[in-house]
Amino acid sequence: MCLSLIENIILFMKIYTKTGDEGTTALFGGKRVRKDDIRIEAYGTVDELNSFIGLLNASFQEATQNYFLSEVQKRLFTIGANLASDPEKKMITPDIKHDDIQTLENAMDTMDQLLEPLKNFILPGGDTVIAQAHICRTICRRAERRVITLNNISQVDPSIIIYLNRLSDYFFVLSRYLSYRNNITEIPWVPRKNA
Q1: Tens digit of each residue's pLDDT (9 = 90 or more) over 101-152
Q2: How far is it between the farthest Cα atoms of the chain?
Q3: What does the alpha-carbon distance between residue 154 and residue 59 come to, in Å, rounded to a whole number?
Q4: What phi and psi, each to the nearest 5 degrees, are found at residue 146?
C-alpha cells in the first residue's frame, strides 16, 4: 500500500508533543502564542461548536439535515484553519465564500416555510435534540463574539464573522424545525406580571 506524505506524517505523529506544557501553542506558520491568546480562544470556541454539532447530528436521523450539518462542520474547519494561521506570514488559507453564507440563508428559508410565524420568545428545550440545537446556537454566538474581539486586534476575514452570525440564526430556525418535525409544542416565554 502506498501512503501519501501527509498520511505517513499522521501515521507516525504522536498525539502528545509536550511542546505546550508551558502554556503555549503553535499557529500554522510556526509562531508560538499563549494558550489563552484571543486567537486561540476564537478558534477553540469554533472547535467546541463543531464538537457539539457532531453530537446534535448524531442525535437524530434525517438525511438532508444530517448531510447539511456535516457540511457546516467542514466550513467550521475552514474557519478554524483560517483563524489558526499566523497573520504575519500572509499564508494562503481556505476561505469562506459568499455561496457558503447564501447556503445557510437558503436552508433557513426552506425550513421557515413550514413554521408558524414567531409571536413570542421561546424557551430552549422541548426534547434533547431541540435543546442541543439551542446549545449549538449559543456556542456559535460565543464564537462570533470571540472572533469579533480578535478582529479588534488583528483583521479577520469579514466573511467569517458573517458566516458565524448567520449560522447562529440557522441553529435557531433548526430548533424550531425540529419542534415542528417531532410534533413538539414550542414553549413561549411569558413574562411574569408584577403584582
Answers
A1: 999 999 999 999 999 998 889 999 999 999 999 999 999 999 999 999 999 9
A2: 76
A3: 37
A4: -65, -40
3-state class (DSSP) for residue 122: strand
Q: Which of 107, 78, 103 is nearest to 93 (CA)?
A: 78
Q: Is the separation of the CB atoms in 83 and 42 below 8 Å?
A: yes
Q: According to the 3-state scheme, what is the secondary structure of 20-45?
A: CCCCEEECECCCEEECCCHHHHHHHH
**24-26 and 32-34 beta bridge pairing:** antiparallel
Q: How far apart are CA 126 and CA 170, in angstroms?
A: 18
**Residue found under cell 434525517:** 62
Measured over the CA atoms of residue 128, residue 135, residue 40 and residue 65, the dihedral's sign is positive
Rg over CA atoms, the chain: 19
- Written as one letter, the residue type at 172 is F
Handedness of CA 191, 181, 106, 47 (dihedral sign): positive
Three-class SS of 72-103 = HHHHHHHHHHHHCECHHHCCCCCCCCHHHHHH
What is the set of domains in the chain, with CATH numbers? 32-85+94-116+125-181 (1.20.1200.10)
* Residues counted in the chain: 195
